[in-house]
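Hello,

Our lab assistant flagged a job as stuck in the queue for most of the afternoon. It eventually completed. Since we weren't sure the result was trustworthy after the delay, we are filing this so someone can double-check. Below is the sequence as submitted and the structure that was eventually returned. Let us know if re-running is recommended.
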Amino acid sequence: MLVRERGQDLIAMSSVKEQEAINRLMTFFRDWDNGNKVKRSRILNDFITYNRGKTAPELEQEFSQGGSLFLARLTTWLRLSYMFGTCLQEILQSIAIFLSAVNSGRYKVEFVEVGGTLTLLEILGLKQLNEEHKMEALGILQILARAGHQYKELICESYGVRAVAECLANAKMEATQEQAQILLELLAHGNPKYQSQVYKGLIALLPCASPKVQHLSLQTLRIVQDIVQTPHPAIVDPLLGALQSMHMEVQYEALQLIRELTRTEVRPDLLQELVKLLRPSWKDGGRAKPQILEDPDAPAISAPLPIFIQQAACAKAIGMLARESSELCDQMIRLRVVHHLLYVMGNMDHTESQRQASLAVQYLASVSPVVEEQVRLAIGEKLFQMLMENADMLYMKLDLIQVDVLVSNQVNIPGVKEESE
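-- returned structure --
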């Protein structure tokens, strides 16, 4: 009898607690539904403060099994107000708490089913929103992308690659750029249907004026290249264009990607273009001169600085690749690379080009008896000895006669077909 009475008391107490919890939840929703911007902002800040890091079951307990109802309200307000930025950061942070919670699969499904993904992607392209908002949106998209390939496909089907790539290209803050780069990399992994789309999007970012964007794009391309394996032929020109950058981190990533691509199908085009850029056409590759260079008293510059930087980088790449394998070395010799490198050694407009070309020729002559013989004949014994003894500093010791010899050299490696200049 006593046991049954205690059981009835417990049931009654449980029912009372459940009713109280439901009443609190209804009061909470009534305050939210009737609240103005200030009141909703306070509710959101309290929610963020007390619920960050909670699991989905804990959130459900907090909302008396009504967590989905609050998430639906957040998503609705997001879709109605995101263009104006009203409490946008707090809304996005609150949604992130739901979607990042452990065992939050149901929340993710509910969010994407009402168009949440599209709204996040639209936020990335709105000029009137600040970058803090875009970083929050990128963070939620990363949460979804980590949840499985079906979410990655959904993002890509919604033109997400283009939206994220444009956000990366237009962002001014490094933190925003880095978050966009992380998302692009996530979209490439485990997403065979759209990995090629991500790959092409990264290639399209290479001509970007921002060194940081170029750096991040090249870093990610090296990772995605391993995923897609077969390179797109369109990668060659923008990749070599990145060698015009004055930023060493961009040059480094570009050179490393060039090294990796020489193991793929684009190697012939890549090597041919590298050699060709040792003697570029200034009229095709130059940028507009700064206004100060129009001053008649200013020193004359025969080619734009980015072209010289690219020329030096190409000479450096050729030396690097020649050291990679004898096969690569032979291929470049067949492309008359020695002839062009000697010409660059006489380029007194840019000392780094001279230095890198000298180092490349020194190495080629040291590993190929044929190259050694032909270079010795073309430039004379004295200049050849100077080259072999200290290629790194040779440009500082050249006189005008030696420069003329280098520029007008007629190196002709036996078996290598002459090409028109």
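-- support follow-up --
The delay was a queue issue, not a problem with the job. The result is valid. The chain has 24 helices and no strands. Residues 42 and 158 are 33 Å apart (CA to CA).
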